[in-house]
What does this fold into?
Amino acid sequence: MTYVRYLGRTVFRMLSLLIAVSVLSFVLMEAAPIDPMTAYIGTDSALSEEAKEEIAEHWSLKDPPVRRFAAWAENFLQGDWGDSITFKRPVKTVILERFRYSVWLMLAAWTLSGILGYVLGLAAAVRRGSLGDRIIKTLCLVLQSAPTFWIGLLILSLFAVKLRWFPIGLAAPMGKLADEITLADRIYHMILPALTLSVLGIGKITLYTRQKMLEIMESDFILFARARGESMAQIVLRHGIRNTLMPAITLQFASFSELFGGAALAESVFSYPGIGSALTAAGLNADVPLLLGIAVFSAVFVFAGNLAANLLYMILDPRIREASAR
Amino acid sequence: MEKKEKESVTGVENKWEHEKGKAPVLEVEDLTVSFGMYYKGLRRRELEVLHRLSLTVYAGEIMAVIGASGSGKSVLAHAVLGILPGNAAVQGEMRYQGGAYGEKEQKRLRGKEIVLIPQSVDYLDPLMRVGRQVRGVRGSKKMQENVFERYGLSENVDRLYPWELSGGMARRVLISAAEMEKARLVVADEPTPGLNEEMAEETMKSFRQMAERGCGVLLITHDIDLAFRSADRIAVFYAGTVVEEALTEDFQSGGAALRHPYSRAFLDALPQNGFRPIPGSQPYAGNLPKGCLFADRCPMRSEACGREIKMREVRGGRVRCIRDEI
Ligand code: SF4
It folds into this structure.
């Protein structure tokens, strides 16, 4: 019962969020000093006057902003997301194609930072105050405050330029034909951007896990476990993981927004053809249709992460699960 | 301390030992526990929560430690089990069944021969099913089922989570956990908070059964009535020390048989005795007086009370007071 109500509320929240995101993006574009026509066709367009007329008609470009937004929204809902100026192709195609690259990159970085961060956080908490704990803590704080761009450049110059272990950029070797590209090529090209991206997320999850575990270690039930003769290893395995894994996973899902933001920068540094670098390119070229498309798309993506986090909690935490089963 | 010496000092043998011929399970001699605290940021300060506490628990008896709530009695329980936090410093000597009882022995014996019965289900892992917790790291399913049956817990309690237990069930579950082992010493820390009369009685009955099997039961409580009704002997806890150890009868007979001024004041302050509290409050653990800890409130104080006061035998009990005509 509660599930259904929860889902209903969530979908409602999602819809209002999407509307808010698109309105806000639209208003921001509107505020930018670009002529709407130029925004839709770009500055160096070689289109004929008739074609321009047609576009203006289709997107209601000559009308006031509110009508223009309505026209965009209507087209968007019907699946016409407009054409990207930068890529000279439909926005939808560009986003889906780019996302195929990004999704693997983000997934790899997300999993890596999640697992590594969790284990490091646990270890630091168990050995609280030790040298290892202090190193992990300091490193995380540094990583958390360091800009992704800078970390990306650092990794790039060390592993790709200096050591030459990895390629400088792109998702596949240059000059190779599309059907000659192997999976190994793709993975090889993905390693550095994924590393950069996971470095971005690892600080947060490590510090969070450490904090959570420290709280658990102070709790009365750990005291009782010790009184019953459980060893440190048994305490961590029986109670520590049980009480920290769920919150950590939830946090990891909830950090989809940082992941998306980080991907934009990491992909740009490594000229990795994902959705992040498309976003940067769209911003630099004042590619309004693509920007709007990505804004809505990323909102859905981030929202899906948060939804997954909440649902997981509901399903896996017995306190919520059994309370709602009643 | 040698027994011969005790006799020569007081001329009286310990009454309990004498009458029932029981052997001590736990002997605590001058136990001092202090916590290093940072006071006003930088200055490290020692908080002496237990101060030269002496106490003996015999096999087959219920020994109740009574004192105001929040006065550090739990620290005694934790010190006996050896589960104090890392910033605690321990001095003094403990003996278990006549033999050495240090950190090594504590580690080996806790949860096996020496068990803790905690206050509430907060001492159980909220995310682990009750049955698994009662079994602990050594118990078998069979044993757990037997214990559950003995305590009238139905089979399905096994699959419940701690927060799903009613007050009475929770109490029985916590006792069951202690009953999984062949305990020689049971330490019960405030085992009856918020329980109604009937359940408190039931709990005490379980403790009596344990005592009859030969266990020593150390019952730590602020519930004086409960101690009067069910304990064999009572130790009065004041400012981190035990000021008097006496048979329960000595308390029930109106207080004339008691040896320490605080024990009498404590008795007088009870509602049923007219509620006549003495003025003043217990000294702060960070600033204990040199000699007798009760000196600033004692009507019978003399010059000599400012010196170190030893625990001594008087009329079959033990008292920490130097007055001659006790
Ligand atoms: S030692 Fe002195 S001050 Fe302390 S209780 Fe006895 S008489 Fe009172």
Remarks:
- The two ends of chain A are 9 Å apart (CA to CA).
